[in-house]
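Teaching assistant here, posting this on the class forum so everyone can see the example we discussed in section. The complex has two components, and the goal was to see what a joint structure prediction looks like when all of them are supplied at once.
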Amino acid sequence: MAETQEYRWPVPKMRGFAAEFYAYCKRHELRFQRCTNCNTWRHVPRDMCAKCGSFAWEWARSSGKGKLFSWTTAMQPMLPQFADLVPYSPVVVELEEGVRILSWLTDVADTDLRLDLPLEVVFDDVTPEVTLPKFRRAG
Amino acid sequence: MYALKDQACIVGVGETAYTRGSGKTDLVLMLEASMNAITDAGLSPHDIDGIIPPPLPSTAEHFAANLGVEDLRYAVTVHMGGASPVTSLQSAAMAVACGVAKNILVPLGWNGYSTMRVRDMGNKSKGNGGGGSGAPGALANTIGEYYLPYGANVPVQWYAWLATRHKELYGTPDEAMGSVAVTSRKHAQLNDKAYMQGRPLSMEDYLNARWVSKPFRLFDCCLETDGAAAVVVTSPERARDLKHDPVYISGIAEGHPYPADDIPARPDPFTIGLSFATPNALQMADVALKDLDFAEIYDCFTYVVLLQMEALGLCKRGEVGEYAQGDRFALDGELPLNTHGGLHSEAHVWGMNHIVEATHQLRHEAGARQVKDAQLGLVTGWGDFGDGSLAIMRR
C-alpha cells in the first residue's frame, strides 16, 4: 500500500493469541503454535494441544511453503469496503507443517486457481501496525 | 441403550406468515408462532412448563413472562446456529422423558430480511459498516482475527471453501446443485405459505443467475425472510388427550465438526456435524435410510444439502453429483426433498419450518404437496461452521 493512502479494509483485532501471531507477521515471520511435548502444529491458536493435552507450546517458525487447499471467489461485496475490490478470492492454504490458514494470493488470477498449486508466504505491511501474511506462486 | 426412542412427540405446530417487512419484533413473531403451536396442540399457554428459545436476544424468561408461564421448570438454549431447532428437539425429548417438564415450547423467529440482510452488507449506504459478523463467541474470534481481514465475513463465503474443494475433487456438476434449488422451488408452488409461490425456477434460470461467491450463484443461496415457527413437545401419554395424533421423535442426535470453530483446520473437511449425528439417530430409531418417505434437509445453500446427503449416507463420498437428480427428489420420487420449499423457497427460519413441515407430512395434512402415505421422515439441521443435527420422525 502507498503510505499516503489510508488502509480502508478490516484489520484483525489482535487480541490474545492473535496479538502474538500478528506480531511475528510484522517481523515477517510466519509462526504457528507447536506443542513442545508432542511437536504437533496447530492453527488457529489454542490453549492446549488437542492431541496430547499439554499446555506447553512455542511459536515455531513455518517454512512458509504450502499449497492451495480451497478457495471461493467473492463476486458480491459483503462489506462496504470490499465493493470496489470484487472479485477477490479468500483462499485456504495448507502449509508444509500441516496447518491451514486463510489468506489471499498476490499473483494468481481468480480463474487460475487450482488445487495443490505450490505457494509461498509473502508479507503485506498494510498499516504501520498490521502485517497480513499472503501467498504467491512458489517456483 | 437408546432410551429416547419414541419417548417424546410433537403435538403442536405453528407459524406466522413469511414476509419481507413484518413490522414486528423478533419476539412478537415468535410469540405469535408459539400461540399458534399451543392452540394447534389443544393446550393453553399456562400448560407450557419448558421453553427452548434460539440463541437470540429473547430468553426463555421473556417468553414465560409474555405467555403467562408461572412455573417454568426447564429453560435452555442450544448454540448451534441453524442446527439449533433440531438439536432443541433432542433437549426437549430428554426433558420430557426424564419428567423434568411436561409440555415444552420450541420457538424460532427473526426478521431475517428486515434487520439482518446479508445482501446489504456490501452496500455503502445500507451496510453495517464492517462491524463484523454477529456470530457467537467461539466463531467470532476466528472470524474477526483470521477471516475478516481477507474479506470473508459471511456463510456463503465460508461454506464455499467446502464446496469448492469437494467440487474440484469429485467433479460435481452445477446441475446437481441446481437440482436442489429447482426441486425446492417446484415444491413451493404447492405451498400457500411459501414466499416463492407463483415464481417458478427452471434449471436454465438457475444456471443463468449472477454469481454471489463462487461456486455459489444467486439461487444456490436461501431466502432472507421475516417470520417465525414453533412446535410443542410432550410425552406420548399426554398426547392421547390432545387434538392431533402425535408425531414421534424416534431418533434424534446432534453432531459437531472438529474443530467446530475453524473450517480450514478440519483434518477431513467433509466430516461435518451430521456425519457424527447420523449413525446415532438412525440406530436410536432403528430404521434404515431406505425406509424414509421424505427428507427435509437444511438448505441454507445448495452445496450444503449435497454435503449432508453424503454425510447421511444417501450416497457415497464424491458421488452426490450423480445422486442428486431432480426426479429422485420429486413428491412421488424415491426420496421427496424439502416438500414445503425449504429455506430456499418457503422461508428462512433456521429450519424450524422443516420440522413443522415434517409434522404436517406425517399427520397427512400437507394438501397438494402431501407425500403419499408418509410414515417416516427425517429433518436435518446445519449451523455455524457445520454443526449438525438429525431427527427421525414417524407417525
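For the discussion questions: Residues 9-113+223-394 of chain B form a domain with the Peroxisomal Thiolase; Chain A, domain 1 fold (CATH 3.40.47.10). The CA atoms of residues 179 and 325 of chain B lie 6 Å apart. Think about how each of these relates to the inputs above.
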